[in-house]
Specification:
With 229 residues, this protein is an alpha/beta fold. Helices cover 48% and strands 13% of the residues.
């Protein structure tokens, strides 16, 4: 996995995750061949809405690669790239981001979440993951609701973890809609397992990794999975 980030964030990224190949990028021009070399692109977490983020998002939109957009990538899509037409992408808005993408209020989104998810799918020609209690996936097959998850997931970075899982599944060759279904399911079930073991209070996005690994590697037993935490 490669991470393109501002140069001043490279050291912190390597200290936290030394296994990630980090590239210091001062602007879109510094990306060079990176977007074209990737199998999948995930854009949005930590992006910001300034010129740096706009340039990076534009490069990702132009690349002919499967794409996951979250966080500020969605905010920029609503404000700066509203006329974008593309195929082969997954959008992962929470209700606030969904409202901006649809040009309506959050109350309207929450009043009819299925209608909002389907409207986003039609408006952006994308597979849409509308996050929240009862996360919805809207794709070519219709609408699917996730029955798992818990209130402890309402913490910073939880959506970023989902974006990463979606990108990883796409990189393994899964179709967009299938990756969205499976990613949402694994994300929610991992959070439920983490809450079962240590409670919902204080649940962090980073707590999900070992449980997600256990879920997608079903031959690993509980004791073995615990040893990886």
């Amino acid at each position: 996995m490669s991470l393109a980030t501002a140069p001043e964030h490279v050291v912190a990224s390597l200290v936290r995750r030394p296994e990630v190949m980090v590239h210091g990028v001062r602007g879109a021009a510094d990306l060079g061949e990176l977007p074209g070399l990737a199998d999948v692109l995930v854009v949005g977490p930590g992006l910001g809405q300034g010129s740096w983020g706009q340039g990076v998002l534009q490069a990702a939109l132009d690349a002919e690669r499967p794409l996951v957009i979250d966080a500020d990538g969605l905010n920029l899509l609503a404000t700066r790239f509203a006329k974008t037409q593309r195929a082969g992408w997954i959008l992962t808005p929470h209700p606030g981001e969904a409202a901006r993408l649809l040009g309506c209020s959050v109350a309207e989104v929450e009043a009819d979440r299925p209608a909002a998810a389907l409207a986003l799918r039609e408006r952006w020609n994308a597979v849409v993951v509308l996050k929240g209690a009862g996360t919805l996936v809207a794709g070519p097959s219709g609408l699917v609701v996730c029955p798992f998850g818990n209130p402890g997931m309402a913490s910073g970075g939880m959506g970023d973890a989902l974006s990463g899982m979606l990108g990883a599944l796409l990189a393994q060759g899964l179709p967009l809609e299938t990756a969205a279904w499976l990613g949402v399911l694994v994300h929610a079930l991992a959070a439920d397992l983490a809450a079962r073991d240590a409670g919902e209070r204080g649940l962090l996005a980073g707590d999900l990794a070992s449980y997600a690994r256990m879920l997608v590697n079903p031959t690993i037993g509980g004791d073995d999975a615990a040893a990886t935490r």
